[in-house]
Amino acid sequence: MENNLKYKRVLLKLSGESLQGPEGFGIDPDAAEEVGMLVKVIRDLGVDVAIVIGAGNLWRGRTGIQHGMDRATADYMGMLATVMNALALMDAMERIGLVIRVQSAIQMQAVAEPYIRRRAIRHLEKGRVVIFGGGTGNPFFSTDTAAALRAMEIGADVVIKATKVDGVYDCDPMKNPAAVLFENLSYMETINRRLEVMDSTAISLCMDNNLPILVLNLWKPDTLRKAILGEKVGTLVTANPAL
């Protein structure tokens, strides 16, 4: 099966909301297990999987900033929240038989390994799923940027941005039923149109290093597996979308 894979090493970017329950906040073990099962499908195909997860289910830095909080403090709180999400996801994924390592850009040896690039790559080579917590370890950078950075460091073939819609649209499909889905986009078009794929820093990093971004609906049945096998799903952002 491994020879049929379009992508053999992926960086999966999850939002914190992917772990929240029906109440719209916090960590729901059932939601974490559902994400784990989706990851297990592609791990069982022989794909190396690394994950960066956000923290929107626990903390939104912009809320603190709007109330006068220092930006760096708000960002560090968000980074700590991503480690909580990483641990919850680790636990859920271990319960379904995956071998997980959590690495944190902010050192906290009691709960996670420190982020060490070569160690992360070795874990992937041994078939372990690596979850990167703590963002980049620096304030003023988003988890989107952390995803792009880690993807390049581990030699990923693609950044897969998991969403709850089928890809990137010209406007919000939840508000406008006539919204048009893009199958392919260029990095510059994504930035110039201000399409909410990832933040501009993350897209620029991917553009400078020719790293594709695939935006898809993680919760649509079989979508992730189809993407790994090279079937057309979601929106692919590259330098030359016409090719």
Q: What's the number of extended β-strand segments?
A: 11
Order of helices and strands: EHEHHEEHEHEEEEHHEHE
Envelope shape: globular
Oligomer: single chain
SS content category: alpha/beta
Q: How are strands sequenced across the largest beta sheet? A: 4-3-5-2-1-6-10-11-9
Straight-line distance between termini: 26 Å
Major sheet attributes: 9 strands, mixed
Uncertain spans: none
Helix content: 25-40%
Gyration radius from CA atoms, angstroms: 17 Å
CATH topology heading: Carbamate kinase
Fraction of residues in β-strands = 15-25%
Contiguous helical run count: 8
CATH class: Alpha Beta
Tally of discrete structural domains = 1
- Assign the CATH superfamily: Acetylglutamate kinase-like
Mean pLDDT across all amino acids: 94
* CATH architecture assignment name: 3-Layer(aba) Sandwich
Describe this entry's structure for a reader.
This protein is α/β, with parallel strands linked by helices. It has one domain (2-238): Acetylglutamate kinase-like (Carbamate kinase, 3-Layer(aba) Sandwich). The protein has eight helices and eleven strands. The protein has helices at 29-43, 61-66, 71-94, 117-125, 143-154, 187-192, 200-208, 223-228, and strands at residues 9-14, 48-53, 100-104, 113-114, 129-133, 158-163, 168-169, 181-182, 184-186, 213-217, 235-238. The strands form two sheets. A nine-stranded mixed β-sheet has the order 4-3-5-2-1-6-10-11-9, sandwiched between helices. Strands 7-8 form a two-stranded antiparallel sheet. Helix 1 crosses helix 3. The longest helix is centred in the middle third of the chain and has 24 residues, at 71-94. The mean pLDDT is 94.
